[in-house]
Amino acid sequence: MLPLRTVRLLLRDFQADDASAYLRLREGAQFGRYYPAQECDHAASQQLLVRFIGWQHEQPRRQWQLAITRAADGALIGSCGVRVQPDGSASFGCELGEAWWGQGYAREAAQALLDFARDQLGVQVLDAETLLANTAAQQLALQLGFVALPEAGAAREFNGQSWPVLRLRKTLY
């Protein structure tokens, strides 16, 4: 099953020694602009990494948050995941460090993960949410074939304002 390979990337399970690289990729000012600050600090990022590694040991495994690494040099550049529900649907998310934005890595990694979710995990429907202000995440989802749902997600409150949430869905079968 794993790792997943693309032309330029290798998607694999996270390891404990990914900690420093994972913390670095989440600390950019632009990376965190759509999150409450405390969700991107080192403590929160470390907790996420511990959670991702813990998911690898669940039986049956239903949560797959994979490290996105460049095949050429092994550099950790982001993460991409699906969290499978008992009904065959799943939620989807993807993050890249700022240094790797605009190079097609997110789309390449996400497509590999979507293929894996369909072919290996039997996922039929994928759901995603993003802040309405996060046009890059919306563009990625639309390129992957997600469609916006008419009902909005619950708004998120942080940084002194309310952030509307867009819900998206992709049917894999």
What can you see in these coordinates?
The chain has 173 residues and is α+β, with helices and mostly antiparallel strands. Helices cover 26% and strands 34% of the residues. It is globular, with a radius of gyration of 15 Å.
Topology, element by element:
Elements: E1 4-5, E2 9-13, H1 19-25, H2 42-55, E3 63-70, E4 76-84, E5 89-96, H3 105-119, E6 125-131, H4 135-143, E7 147-148, E8 153-158, E9 161-171
Parallel strand pairs: 5-6
Antiparallel strand pairs: 1-2, 2-3, 3-4, 4-5, 6-9, 7-9, 8-9
Q: What's the architecture in CATH terms?
A: 3-Layer(aba) Sandwich
**What name does CATH use for the topology?**
Aminopeptidase
The CATH class turns out to be Alpha Beta
The CATH superfamily name is: Gcn5-related N-acetyltransferase (GNAT)
Q: Any idea what the radius of gyration is?
A: 15 Å
GO molecular function: acyltransferase activity, transferring groups other than amino-acyl groups
Protein name: Protein N-acetyltransferase, RimJ/RimL family
Domain N-acetyltransferase: 32-173
Pfam family, one: Acetyltransf_3
What attributes characterize this protein structure?
173 residues, alpha+beta, Aminopeptidase, nine-stranded mixed beta sheet, 26% helix, globular
What's the short story on this structure?
The protein is 26% helix and 34% strand. With 173 residues, the chain is α+β, with helices and mostly antiparallel strands.
